[in-house]
Amino acid sequence: MSAWWFPVVNLPFPAKAASLGSFHIPIVCSSELACRVLPFHMTSPLLPNYLKANRKRLALSQDEVAFLLGTKSGAKVCRHEQFDREPSLETALAYEAIFKRSVSELFSGVYQKVEREVAERATTLLSRTNPTKRTQQTIRKREALAGLLMS
Question: What is the topology classification, in CATH, of domain 51-106?
Fold first, then answer.
């Protein structure tokens, strides 16, 4: 099974997203006749996170968000907003509590990347399962893996 990446022209996203360059749609083929497009959401944002937009929406400073996170200064918040560092799981959940937005929404660019990588691995794992083996466990496994490809 191989994957090809076809370039797509830049779409009119916010100015910061345009500087990230073009993106690619993954196509996975098990044979020349059996190709399919992996999950890719054209309306999904390209930015790794939307922390700054959500902080501004609530009219909070970086220092105020840092206080809510339990840190001493806004430097940590700044590093997260500027994509210099990814927060720990605990910090990401704290952002969710502060902004009342899911982690997958706050970090939608990262989530989109991870979702695509999981779908690629699910394709590989699905190809390794024996389709002639019809046990309840194998059927559940194949349905679960197929569900990861459709999401």
Answer: 434 Repressor (Amino-terminal Domain) (1.10.260)
